[in-house]
Specification:
The structure is a single chain. This protein is an alpha/beta fold. The protein is 28% helix and 34% strand. Helix 5 links the parallel strand 7 and strand 8. The longest helix is centred in the first third of the chain and has 15 residues. The structure holds adenosine monophosphate.
């Protein structure tokens, strides 16, 4: 499927989770077998030549795309989770959302120093979440070889916060 066809399966939900936010709901795309497979193939096409050792994705939608992408590429997957969810020794980064603040944690032994990491998420909005993931990778001595998204809300200029990172999104608004 083309990225325009995939875009047609993204549902706009006005005023969710709060007034003034237009939430990009990817559930219709994920629930469609052809669209989900095609999305993973498009993501993999960009990611493969960058030879990642692991994909780093945040809960919850980053797990859905990240797990499938890691499987497609034959690399590992590292979950970034909300505080208190991971059982082992961990590191933390705090970030701002389009709506609110939050923190993400990864295990301190999630990957080796020098590992090649692609940070992945469903939506690039202000870039705060992705920047926090880049910081987590760098804290552990990993190399960010790309920041990959299904959707980019270009009007929020998230790319500018990822200035030194190679950024790609399949669908832009
Ligand atoms: P940000 O840190 O501002 O780039 O926000 C990115 C994170 O927030 C992603 O994990 C998205 O899932 C979520 N997010 C932010 N804005 C939206 C939106 N308009 N629609 C759907 N998800 C969003």
């Amino acid at each position: 499927m083309t990225t325009d066809q995939l875009k047609a399966l993204v549902r706009d939900v006005p005023d969710f989770p709060q007034e003034g936010i237009v939430f990009k709901d990817l559930m219709p795309l994920i629930g469609n077998a052809d669209a989900f497979r095609s999305t993973i193939e498009h993501l993999a096409e960009w990611a493969r030549p960058r030879s990642p050792d692991v994909i780093l994705g945040a809960e919850a939608r980053g797990f859905i795309f990240g797990g499938a992408l890691a499987y497609e590429l034959g690399c590992g997957f590292v979950p970034a989770r909300k505080p208190g969810k991971l059982p082992w020794e961990k590191i933390r980064a705090t970030y701002e959302l389009e709506y609110g603040n939050d923190s993400l944690e990864i295990h301190a032994d999630a990957f080796a120093r020098g590992a090649r990491v692609i940070v992945l998420d469903d939506v690039l909005a202000t870039g705060g979440t992705a920047k926090a993931k880049v910081e987590l990778v760098e804290q552990l001595g990993g190399i960010v070889v790309g920041a990959l998204f299904v959707i980019e809300l270009a009007f929020l200029h998230g790319r500018e916060r990822l200035a030194n990172t190679d950024v790609q999104a399949l669908i832009a608004y």
